[in-house]
Amino acid sequence: MIDVSDEDILKICRDAIVSEANALLDFSEKIDDKILKSLHLIKNSTGPLVVVGIGKSGLVARKISSSFSSIGQPSLFLHAAEASHGDLGQISKDSVVLALSNSGETSELFQVMSFCLEYNIPIISITANDDSTLAKSSEIAITYGKLEEVCPNGLAPTTTTTLSLAIGDALVVGLINMIGSEPEDFHKYHPGGKLGAKFLKVADLMHVDDALPIVAPDTPMSEVVITISEKSLGMAVVIENGKIHGVISDGDLRRNAKNLWNLNASEVCSTNPITINASQYATQALKLMNSREITCCVVANEDNELTGVLHIHDCLRAGVTS
Q1: Domain limits at 68?
Q2: Residue 322 lies in a domain
Q3: Please, are residues 174 and 43 in contact by the beta-carbon 8 Å criterion?
Q4: I want to staple 213 with a disulfide (CB 3.0 to 4.6 A). Which of 69, 231, 290, 306 is the partner?
Q5: H or E stretch including 82?
Q6: Domain for residue 93, yes or no?
Q7: What pLDDT score does 190 carry?
Q8: Total number of domains constituting the chain
Q9: Which residues contact 3 (CB under 8 A, 6 or more apart)?
Q10: Looking at the structure, do residues 245 and 116 belong to the same domain, yes or no?
């Protein structure tokens, strides 16, 4: 067991990060039109992008494939060792193959290379050596040259995998800008979790149809209270001639408590209520409700017609934050 102080270990860790960062910076200065040609090849393909690798390169390849899928570029990961056992069928005639291998001589990749060459399927490679079998078999070879791994033995893939991942990320970012991907598009492929919640629209969460607490202007307050209780939104919407006339909230009930049973909906409601549009983001609606200190918001269209009701609890349950 080597006797190394904690202070020395911290310095070693810092130096490792600096070394990998320098490798990234060095390569960024060497980026050429191979990246651009790769992006055009991927963008213009009609089949899925097949990202291939094995070992640590395979783990990086899996992440790159997932990132492409997340922006709407169909992509799948192919484990190089499984390729010759039937998985070559995942590569379609319209696919582009993105292959990762530091040495470019990974034997498990040879079946993939042979298949692609036979069926004229273009290969883009991310590898160290321009003279490797993989690079020579590729239509486009993105090569980064020989790098020293930060592993003290120079064996564990560290610097090379970090750089390969960064190149993959650069391709993803480049493609996002080429295809004009928007936040709404990103939400399509991230409907769950915090990313999904961030892009939820009011229409995704609002109560509609029979769940809406609708009353007419001449509805007696004894009936209005029953409607509010049954619909469990803490409010009622007063509709007159198909348009939103007003809203009756808990506050309106309290303000008219002494004479409530002698009044109708139009006499109690607050007119010109705060409204939102169904196409707005739920984050915007939540921010509005918090700023106005209300728990419900009426959802209306451009003609002031009721399309739904959004409760603050609907936003919170979906993980929406303002």
Answers
A1: 6-181
A2: no
A3: no
A4: 231
A5: helix 80-83
A6: yes
A7: 54
A8: 2
A9: none
A10: no
Between strands 214-215 and 235-240, the pairing is parallel
The pTM of this model reads 0.63
How would you write 235-256 as a 3-class SS string? EEEEEECCEEEEEEEHHHHHHC
**Are residues 150 and 241 both part of a single domain?**
no
Banded model confidence at residue 70, pLDDT cuts 50, 70, 90:
confident
CA 115 to chain centre: 33
Instruction: Name the β-bridge partners of 247.
Output: 237, 270
| 14 Cβ neighbours under 8 A, 6+ residues apart | none
- Residues 6 or more apart in contact with residue 250 via CB below 8 angstroms: 234, 235
Average pLDDT over residues 218-233: 94
Q: Phi then psi for 100, rounded to 5 degrees?
A: -115, 130
User: What is the 8-class DSSP label of residue 89?
Assistant: G
209 and 174 assigned to the same domain: no
**What pLDDT, on a 0 to 100 scale, did the predictor assign at position 195?**
55
Residue 198's pLDDT band (boundaries 50, 70, 90)? confident
Choose among 267, 207, 213, 221: nearest CA to 239.
213
Compute the distance between CA of residue 172 and CA of residue 48 in angstroms, rounded to an integer: 14
Q: Which two tokens stand for residue 211?
A: 């769940």
Let me know if residue 195 belongs to a domain.
Answer: no
* CATH code for the domain in which residue 230 is found: 3.10.580.10
In-domain check, residue 271: yes
